[in-house]
Every structure is written in C-alpha cells, then in structure tokens.
Amino acid sequence: MNIFIDSNILYQDYFFENKSNKKLLEYCDEGLINLFMSEIVRLELRRQFQKEIEEKNRIIKKIIKGSKRLKLESEISEISISKQFTKFDKFYNKLKMYDNFCILKYKNDFLPDIVDRAINRRKPFTEEKSELKDAIIWKTYSEYVETNNSTDCILLTNNTSDFCEKKDKSKIHAELITDTNKFSVVNKSFEFIKNYASVLESPEHKFQAYVNQIDISQNFVLDIIRNNFEKIIEDKMHLKIDNLNPSDLISADYFFDGQLISYGCEILDCDEIEHEIISETALISGIVYASCEVEILEYNSVRDPGEDRHTSVAEKNVIFKIYFNFDMERDEVYSDFEITDLEISEID
What we know:
By secondary structure, the protein is α/β, with parallel strands linked by helices. It has helices at residues 19-29, 39-69, 81-95, 111-120, 132-147, 160-163, 174-177, 189-200, 203-212, 218-228, 230-242, and strands at 2-5, 34-38, 101-104, 153-156, 183-186, 258-278, 281-299, 310-329, 333-347.
C-alpha cells in the first residue's frame, strides 16, 4: 500500500508523535506500507515549524519584558530557531533511512503545466486562490505513480477543496484524474488507521511485507537448497540411477549385463523461481540442476576365480533437471522440500 502524505496531515505534529501519525510511521518501518512525501511538503512543514517558533518567541519576549518591569528574576530566553532547525532536519534525514519512506523531488519540467493550470484556474488552482505548492505536490505524486505504475495508492490529505470532488471527499477531483486515476483519498491519519489497521496488521499481510524485503532470486534459492536440501536431492538422484540400465547412459551393443554406481552430489544452478504466499508461509518453487558421478560396470561372465564379478568400463557425469518446491517461514525456516519431477538433462 502506497501512502502519499500532504502537509496539512502533519501540521501541529511535525515529528509524527500523535497516535495515528506515529502508527503510520510504525507501519512504514515494518514495511507494511510505503510512505511518500513531496519535498515541497517537507519544506512547507519546515517553514510552518519556523513560524510557530517565531510566534512562541514573540510571546516569550513579552514575558521577559513583563518580568523586567516587575523586577522578577528569570532565566527565560528565546528559542533558538537554528537549533530547532537542526533537530527538524536530523529527524527528516533519519526518515530517509527507512527502506519504505521516500521524499520525492519535484521537477522543473512541471513548470509549463503548472503555469497553464494557474492561468486557466484548473485544479488545484481556483478562482478564489492560487496555490502553487499544491500544484507541485500533485504533479510530483501523480507523475511518480504513473511513471512507476504504482497500485493501491492513497492521497492522505484534508485539503478536500483543492484535491477532491465536492460531493465525495474520498475521490480525486475530475480535473485531476486526467493526470492519474490511481489515487483514492483519506482525509485523516485516524481514518486511515481505522479503515486499514485490521488488514495491515493481519498475519498474512505482515508476512507479505516480510517477504517483500527479501530478494527471492536464483542465488537466494540456490543457497537455501545447498545448505538445507542437498542430501534429499542426492538420495533422489542416486535412487534414479539405481533404477537405470547401463544402456540408458552409454551406447554399447556388447552389454550383456551390468550395473551403475552413483557417487556424490553437486548443486549447479536453479531456474524459473516463483513464490506464492499462503497464510504465513511462502511456497517457493522452480527448477534446480544437480549432478552426480556414475561408474558403469559390465558383468564379467568369463572371469577367473577370485576376479570381480563386474568390470568398470566407463565413468559419466550425469546432470539432472529437478522440479521442486519448499516452504519458507520467518527467521530463515525452510521445510517440506518436495521433488515433483526429475529427469536426466545431460550426460558427459
């Protein structure tokens, strides 16, 4: 789920400290949602933060002045805006370290379209007001979701007059849908938590978020198989060899009788890796290639007393194509390795 946040959601709560906003950040940290913020939103919050401090300083100045008049001893001093900016910037730089939090830069390429909207008073501009920042925020978010083909997108804003349909505050205004139709709207953090907490906190969704943080690649699966299931594959290959005839591996018309002896196991590669979430388990499937050495023995019907019953006539490296699946759970727990088919791929 992709959440795109507007400035007004964080007015009075610049550091995500109220209950609902804190929960949003927790979901983001856990990988349950992706949280996006336009650079314009961050800058607007920073400016609003400064304005609030300046207002507090005006009040403090009055208190200091009154204290002097009353001959009161006081250690009251004005708030350092630079120190508070340091705190603000440190917090938002830390947010950038979250895997699922992203501050989106605006593009200069947006300017021609924004100017056209401003002149023609198209959303988010209106006849009554001209909000450049809202236009940039919208262009940043709409361009991102279209470029990245994002799904399940929510614009978190209570600026319904500029972004939403007049009769339905959960829908993007018709004039803005020409940019993208991928957004639904939620007006408050509390409403988002109320509507989606049960889904986001379900075991299935949490496990999906866990899996999303893992690159289930060929190398990832190959390492799991080598470290956990090599013996199963070895036994299966050897059993397959035991049920073959020497003529299955070597062309020789003179064979009257013989046998095959297999040795070892080498996991070579894997392919066609897929995974499917089933409750709190990921079912991983694909193809693994593995090889073993095979000694081909011919029955010695004219042997002298004391000689071996069989004579070694060839050695082959046999590569198998093995169709498999296994379960992956949290904390690197892998189980129930199953081979659904096994066939000889190559004989060297």
